[in-house]
DNA sequence: GAAAACGCTGTACCTGCGGTACGGTTTTTG
DNA sequence: CAAAAACCGTACCGCAGGTACAGCGTTTTC
């Protein structure tokens, strides 16, 4: 990474923290540059105005989020051929990732943007909307796969279930932030997991042996405490 | 309502709209007073500073929210003696209330505060925390009642389920605001309702006749499309 | 019916921040 | 070594939050 990109990255990280703690409108450029150890001119060299900063922040955030999703649900698929099991494993891993954040989840930039829509131009809002839509279609596709093999017990719209994923995470972040209790987010993800499990599990009697042998090694963490 | 309280209420309503649309830090007093038709001095007569405005706004919001909860879940209890059915009816009514908002839910002030914590003093944050905790113990008590009669099918912590209610609503508000689609919030509440239903329903075979005869008349709206 | 409290208005002023402009300087890179 | 990249310094504008205080009409209270 060149020195320019490094500084840019530092600005974005600091600004994200500030935005999540105080809101975009209350985030002062002076504070950001002081913490980043640069001058105002330096800042405006990288971002022509605050909206460009917002755009870059959002893109950075969405990308990082996508990497996490790719990681946990990709691992889920590696660990089971059954789409339901794979998704449940992914959710378990996601809950673990959320729980392992040192000071709890810092906050969701999408939610922050949502609660300050008037502050941003169309492009920023479009980035937020597209990202969420992308996650929804992603999870919707997964749910379709699952439903093909496991007929859902309740007549619930799968788009709504896919949407629920984002809602639970965003709601869980708010609760864990507000209550200063990182575990709440973890619990919410696991509760959503229970919902999915119940929705696609045919009967109280549990059919065992659907989990294929793990092809990949799992790094130190035992994955199978509550798989079914 | 005295003239003073009337002006105060007008200020609070306008400020709430602005805060939900732009964030607290970006909400300008000049804009609020312009819309309220008063002067700056008039504003500072009612609120000594922005933090006092925030406190009053939050209290107003929480109170309104409590009224809605009291209303829908109170009606639920009127319509069924079974705690599960009463809760499910309440959730259905809540979803309807959410769907009937003319321009969608304007936003949750608690979430807004959460994403701008650094802007507020301890008291404001305490109000937010206490309100959410109040809702959680309320729903937890309801869930305890339900669980006493309907053993839950999954080993889920009831505190987490109670928490999930707030998460779903806050998450649903974010999604519906972001996507400009008020129905998403309604769907999320109904999805949570499905979760509760599944969690406390003993088996796929539905035992009928648990709904007691409604003692109260239902005002024009037919309550029983998807009760079980 | 006078006094006090209420509900504001008007003016003036200070501070800090977002943002612009622009010339100069150092650092990196081809 | 030269050019591009990555900044620094300074000076400035306008707006918003916030303070201070004097005053004024209306309503309430004794």
From TrEMBL, chains A, B:
InterPro entries membership: Homeodomain-like_sf, HTH_TetR, Tet_transcr_reg_TetR-rel_C_sf
Keywords carried by this UniProt record: DNA-binding, Transcription, Transcription regulation
Biased composition (Basic and acidic residues): 219-228
Domain of life from the UniProt record: Bacteria
Keyword flag Transcription: yes
Domain called HTH tetR-type: residue spans: 5-65
DNA-binding region as annotated in the record: 28-47
Region of interest: Disordered: 207-228
Record flagged with keyword Transcription: yes
One Pfam family per UniProt: TetR_N
Name of the molecule in the record: AcrR family transcriptional regulator
Organism, as annotated: Aminobacter niigataensis
């Amino acid at each position: 990474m060149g020195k320019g990109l490094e500084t840019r990255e530092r600005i974005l990280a600091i600004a994200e923290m500030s935005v999540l703690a105080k809101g975009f409108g209350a985030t002062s450029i002076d504070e950001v540059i002081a913490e980043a150890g640069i001058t105002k001119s330096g800042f405006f060299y990288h971002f022509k105005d605050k909206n460009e900063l917002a755009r870059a922040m959002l893109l950075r955030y969405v990308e990082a989020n996508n990497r996490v999703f790719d990681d946990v649900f990709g691992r889920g698929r590696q660990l089971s051929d059954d789409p339901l099991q794979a998704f449940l494993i992914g959710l378990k891993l996601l809950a673990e990732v959320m729980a392992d954040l040192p000071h709890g989840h810092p906050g969701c930039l999408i939610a922050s943007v949502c609660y300050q829509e008037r502050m941003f131009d169309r492009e920023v809002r479009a980035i937020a909307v597209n990202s969420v839509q992308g996650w929804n279609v992603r999870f919707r596709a997964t749910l379709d796969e699952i439903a093909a093999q496991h007929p859902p017990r309740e007549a619930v719209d799968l788009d709504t279930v896919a949407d629920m994923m984002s809602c639970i995470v965003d709601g869980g972040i708010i609760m864990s932030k507000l209550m200063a209790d990182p575990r709440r987010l973890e619990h919410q993800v696991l509760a959503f997991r229970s919902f999915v499990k119940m929705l696609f599990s045919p009967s109280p009697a549990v059919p065992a042996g659907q989990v294929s042998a793990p092809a990949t090694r799992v790094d130190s963490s035992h994955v199978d405490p509550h798989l079914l």
